[in-house]
Amino acid sequence: MKVTVVGSGYVGLVTGTCFADMGNDVWCVDIDQKKIDNLKKGIIPIYEPGLEEMVKRNVEEGRLRFTTSLKEALADTLFVFIAVGTPPGEDGSADLQYVLAVAEDIGKNMERYLIVVNKSTVPVGTADRVRETIQTQLVKRGRGDLEFDVVSNPEFLKEGSAIEDFLRADRVIIGTDNVRTAELMKELYDPFQRKGEKILVMDIRSAELSKYAANAMLATRISFMNEIAALCEACRADIEKVREGIGSDSRIGRSFLFAGIGYGGSCFPKDVRAIIQIQKEYGLLPKILPAVEETNKQQRVRFVEKVIRVLGDDLKGKVLAVWGLAFKPQTDDMREAPSVDIIRDLHSRGARFQAYDPVAVHTARAVLGNDGIVYATGYYEALKNADALLLLTEWHQFRKPDFERMKSLMKAYIIFDGRNQYNPIKIREAGFSYYCMGRP
Ligand SMILES: NC(=O)c1ccc[n+]([C@@H]2O[C@H](COP(=O)([O-])OP(=O)(O)OC[C@H]3O[C@@H](n4cnc5c(N)ncnc54)[C@H](O)[C@@H]3O)[C@@H](O)[C@H]2O)c1
After folding, report:
1. What is the CATH number of the domain that holds 254?
2. Regarding beta strands 319-323 and 352-356, do their DSSP bridges make them parallel or antiparallel, or are they unpaired?
3. 159 and 285 together in one domain
4. Which pLDDT belongs to residue 395?
């Protein structure tokens, strides 16, 4: 089938590449000329395991092409996916300017029937706005006769396992009121559900809201566990034991129950804020989700407080090693990464940093700059003469470090573990002072 994906970021590029991998003819479109030039040369703009190889294979086999010209892509396509960013506006609501700009562009350039699929995370009612925007442009061009459908198809992939998630999604939600469009969408997604039916067809508004509700639920689980972790610290219980104790209940399940320094990334923070805003717009009084957000912010503060309690409020002259900068492992995404707030706060108290991340140094540098931070090329190198180690992202390679080698490099043997990676008893036996989240 012929597919165009507009927006070649984390979602768009993965979506386009996975559709191409199933034998479809795909155009990936972006307004960023440099990104498209690089993609044409095989340079992938983001770190996502398995993506580079998959892009190259599909380009070589002629199924995946890149362009900045939507007109060129639309000339011969049935589906056009909108996968551009929906960042938070000033009041926290989703900023739809990029989505609507694409809709306008579609209206200006389409010459034949299209199924316009909204994959960006958008508030309820956005499909209507996309439809109106396209129609307005068609009428202006005197092509009000051209037919099109607008579908909601929210994306649930996770950065770091985006390809795997797309190829083997738990479910594919298709929001449409049109039976024929639903069938065509099912045909497109059919190769991804060979092990069983995963497609859920529903009305557009429910599809749009499902995405926000899913992220809000996951964020709630994380904040809930962080609140219980604070209680564990107060009453000398162990959050890791409590996690096992509740996660083994099949009604609760084991996923998304890890306490730490809170969630970050391009989705949870903005989607929680956006759904709060949607609730307010409909005259409702959100109660749970503002608390989820507040607890999440507090986790970063609580971590900084742990550091200050041990090293003092004046951190001038202190060198802190940092392991992990990205908002989670397996990605170079620094959007709303907890590391940013933590480093900035400690920097304002005089600390200097030697930071290491396996893939996010270039994105981290763009956010944090070079003032007071040296970016190490290896994780042991980051420890040289350090007064303490902060573990902020749980990359696999940090799980089983050589503690003796660490001690030979560090000035003081202190670890602040924001991700509960180590066994407190063993690490203290190894000679470290160890501070983690929600464990005695
Ligand atoms: N990143 C995730 O893990 C994830 C997961 C599920 C859903 N989402 C949602 O998917 C959407 C996209 O997120 P992302 O992380 O891929 O964003 P991104 O910032 O990585 O990519 C967006 C891309 O769109 C391009 N773009 C902007 N305006 C354009 C236009 N008019 N024409 C063509 N290209 C344009 C940008 O240049 C950029 O390359 C968001 O709504 C997000 O909430 C993201």
Report:
1. 1.10.1040.10
2. parallel
3. no
4. 97
The CATH number given to whatever domain includes residue 408 is 3.40.50.720
Cβ contacts of residue 197 below 8 Å, gap of 6+?
A: none
Residue that is last in its domain, among 257, 291, 325: 291
Considering the domain boundaries, does residue 135 fall inside one? yes
Domain identity same for 224 and 287: yes
Q: Which atom of ligand 1 is nearest to the CA of 101?
A: 31
Ligand 1 centroid vs 85 CA: distance in angstroms? Answer: 4
Average pLDDT over residues 377-394: 98
Residues 278 and 150 placed together within one structural domain of the fold: no
Q: Does residue 440 sit within a domain?
A: no
Q: Whose CA is nearest to atom 33 of ligand 1?
A: 30
Across the range 82-109, mean pLDDT stands at 96
Q: Across residues 401-421, what is the average pLDDT?
A: 98
Instruction: Count the domains in the chain.
Output: 3
Record the pTM: 0.94
Instruction: Provide mean pLDDT across the span 203-228.
Output: 98
H or E, element range at 203: none
- Pocket probe for ligand 1: among 84, 104, 108, 152, the residue whose CB has the most ligand atoms within 8 Å is 84
**How many A from CA of 9 to the centre of ligand 1?**
5
Spacing, Cα 187 to ligand 1 middle (Å): 25
CA of 8 to the centre of ligand 1 (A): 7
Distances (CA, A) of 92 to 270, 276, 279, 374: 7, 8, 12, 33
Pairing mode, strands 2-6 and 64-67: unpaired
Q: Which of 180, 202, 224 is the last residue of a domain?
A: 202
* pLDDT(440) > 90: no
The pLDDT score that the predictor gives to residue 196 is 76
Residue of 92, 121, 87 lying closest to 273 (CA atoms):
92
Whether 18 and 161 share a structural domain: yes
- Considering the domain architecture, whether residues 325 and 366 belong to the same structural domain is answered as yes
267 noted as active-site residue:
yes
Atom 17 in ligand 1: residue holding the nearest Cα: 85
Q: Are 355 and 319 in contact (CB under 8 A)?
A: no
Q: So what's the pLDDT on residue 175?
A: 98
Whether 88 is covered by a domain: the verdict is yes
Nearest to 33 by CA among 73, 63, 69: 69
Instruction: Tell the residue nearest (CA) to atom 21 of ligand 1.
Output: 9
Q: Which residue among the candidates 18, 28, 267, 436 is catalytic per the annotation?
A: 267
Q: Which residues line ligand 1 (CB under 6 A)?
A: 6-12, 29-32, 35, 83-86, 98, 101-102, 120-121, 155, 157, 159, 266-267
Q: Which domain holds residue 264?
A: 212-291
Specify the residue with its C-alpha closest to ligand 1, atom 1.
Answer: 10
- How far apart, in whole angstroms, are the C-alpha atoms of residue 113 and residue 268? 35
Question: With bands split at pLDDT 50, 70 and 90, how would you rate the model's confidence at 264?
Answer: very high
